[in-house]
Amino acid sequence: MIGFLDGDELTAPLILTLRSFGRTDIGRARASNQDAFLHDDELRLYVVADGMGGHAAGEVASSEAVDALFCFVKRGLSDGALAQSSHESRLRTACRIIEGGIQAATYHVFGMSELERDKSGMGTTITAALAVDESLVIGQVGDSRVYQIRNDTVRQVTEDHTLIAWQVKQGIISEAQARVSPHKNVITRAVGNREYVQVDTCVVTMLPGDRYLLCSDGLHGNLTEAEIPFLVEMGGEQAVDAFIDLANRRGGRDNITAVLVEVF
Length: 264
Prior knowledge:
This protein is α+β, with helices and mostly antiparallel strands. It is 33% helix and 25% strand. The chain is globular.
């Protein structure tokens, strides 16, 4: 069975329009921008990736991973894979496409790191969302995030693949201890440092008026969930710019990327 989050469930398909906006910024402390993103309203695919690795390797890892995922999804959808009559069948297929695309990106980035010595060990997070009917199929590796904003209520849809997130989940440390932990940036899963990665997938039911924010940790590490609805209400490019500006005002210690998807 397909897993739905927090009461999301299958209903009669809605006709929804999606409009998206995205921006990435180097921030104020880094020498290069290793984030990459994609928002394609025609394909209904949205991606944020946060690269890691020395020299330009992180930048290469994130951009190559996003391109590989995009190509895989585009090919997967071009053969009518989502033309099945059953909505649940379409969701199952979309989950396979998203997971397959992330695995393809993983193999591609790993292969590059094996062939080019200066890119050895490079990797990237990847957070991807593919809209199917009134549902959003999400694939997750790393600590970039998806937030859902509905009626001024915010929930984090994805789970961080970090050491401190695992420690909190296991009850080893508290939320308060996690906020000051020196291990905040230790990633437990990444695209490209091995040939294979475990991908988390989930399905969220969208409603008209929803907003979905995909972002790298350079943004979500510099704001609280309570601040998100106010900024999102600015709408479109203005909202994305406001998110970037806020992170920079609070130090801009990392690259900052935001993709905002508005549902009508």
